[in-house]
Design a protein that fits this description.
Belongs to the MLP family. This is Bet v I/Major latex protein domain-containing protein. The protein is α+β, with helices and mostly antiparallel strands and 156 residues long. It has a single domain, classed as START domain (Alpha-D-Glucose-1,6-Bisphosphate, Chain A, domain 4), CATH 3.30.530. It has an eight-stranded antiparallel β-sheet with strand order 1-2-8-7-6-5-4-3. The radius of gyration is 15 Å and the shape is globular. It starts with a strand and ends with a helix.
Length: 156
């Protein structure tokens, strides 16, 4: 655990085995996030760019609004804060989120893709000790990863 602004930062991670190309998998998040509602409709209902972002290709400072449900109760706005293309790694910081940010002061998620796996690491600070760990969000990310893997696998 690390100290951030006098608060304890917690860390959790989940790794999803993948059989598809690591490069293609990474590119879905980096350049084709608009496909997520079609690839994983159970998990991503809608995704949109947030001004001044005007391209789906992520760059540091790019922002998106992601909706997990139809009513918009479970949604969040994120910003890309770091990209390492050669390592197939991208880090997002959650700026806003109705449910998520009611539990956490800060929430940051890093995706790292290697041949055979896609790992999400989240670093977060809880608003208080009664707030849950982000297992719900990690399971949702795992489910999206599985859907992307299936989408990218060649048809038999």
């Amino acid at each position: 655990m690390a100290q951030i602004d006098n608060q304890i930062a917690n860390k959790s991670e989940i790794t999803t085995p993948i059989q598809c190309s690591a490069f293609k998998f990474y590119e879905v998040y980096r350049k084709e996030a608009f496909l997520l509602p079609r690839i994983s409709p159970r998990n991503v209902k809608k995704i949109e760019l947030v001004p001044p972002t005007c391209s789906w290709e992520d760059k540091v400072g790019s922002r998106k609004l992601v909706h997990f449900d139809e009513a918009g109760l479970e949604s969040f706005k994120d910003e890309v804060i770091e990209i390492q293309p050669h390592a197939k790694k991208i880090t997002f910081k959650v700026l806003e989120g109705k449910m998520m940010m009611s539990f956490y002061h800060s929430f940051q998620a890093t995706l790292e893709v290697t041949e055979g796996s896609a790992k999400w690491t989240v670093v977060f600070t809880k608003k208080n000790a009664l707030c849950p760990n982000p297992d719900y969000y990690l399971q949702r990310l795992d489910s999206v990863n599985k859907d992307i893997n299936t989408y990218l696998l060649p048809s038999n």
